[in-house]
Amino acid sequence: MAEDIMPAPPSDKPVYRFAPSPNGFLHLGHALSAFLNHDMAAANGGRFLLRIEDIDLARCNPEFEAAIYRDLGWLGLRWEAPVRRQSEHFNAYHAALDRLTDMDLVYPAFLTRGEVKAKVTAYEADGKNWPRDPDGSPLYPDDDRHRSGAERRRLIADGVRHAFRLDMKKALALVAAPLNWTETGDRSRGEIPADPSVWGDVVLSRSDAPSSYHLSVTVDDAAQGITHVVRGLDLFEATAVHRLLQELLGLPQPVYHHHRLVVGADGRKLSKSEGSTGLAALRDQGLGVGDIRCILGL
Ligand code: GLU
Predict the structure, then answer these.
(1) Measured from the CA of 231, which atom of ligand 1 is nearest?
(2) C-alpha angle with apex 91: 22 to 82, nearest 5 degrees?
(3) Does ligand 1 have an atom closer than 6 angstroms to the CB of 22?
(4) What pTM was estimated for this model as a whole?
(5) First CA to last CA across the chain, in angstroms?
(6) How many folded domains does the chain comprise?
(7) pLDDT digits (tens, 9 = 90+) for 202-245
């Protein structure tokens, strides 16, 4: 049976999740996120779930996934079975994409990264600034949004690679009230106004992966009945897109808690290639769970 977008039945307990991507080894930043989710669930009589975010089939691999279980187990964390693996739920993301397509909010986007870059460079040569999203990436140009149905069909029939993007303007026109979310995190608290337009026409399905981070995270949080999303501040702004997708798809909204990021000696966010802060490396140096909690100030 085709899997649809099914919000889980409401739970009488708060539900938390840690959602790593198996595209590298976990580091101290992941440990902070996992501990916070686990500890908040424990303190509030809640459930702690694990989700493997492996839609990027080219970058994710079983070795990294096995390391996630090993590292989290070493940290003394226990999670409910079964673990949700995104690669097993492409049908659900597809159903969500179909629903948005039926609402006439989706278009095929044919420009390659290089073509977008060339357009931006040409535009900025005159001293003007191309609009950028909160992560610093240029917003997707208008070109594909204005193509006729016939032209789209021809390009697709010709085998031109394409993603599917959300027509942000049309989507926002469908949402009646101003969007916001409830935040309990480290930077701000209370009702936060959400402005997804700063992201432009976000990707919903990529040419090399049959979904996107925004779409799958929104579908999964609903499918797993997540009531509290606890994650790093680097995803604070992305919440606006998740709120919009929840409204469009009629999905419930969790409470959000964006926590501080663990930074390296250079003051920058840790990356998965940084061996010295990798949990496996710290374990090999003889550190224990207490040491890791202490380093993280927990
Ligand atoms: N998979 C994302 C990451 O590893 C986290 C997504 C989320 O918590 O919403 O950064």
Answers:
(1) 8
(2) 50
(3) no
(4) 0.95
(5) 45
(6) 1
(7) 999 999 888 999 999 999 999 999 999 999 999 999 999 999 99
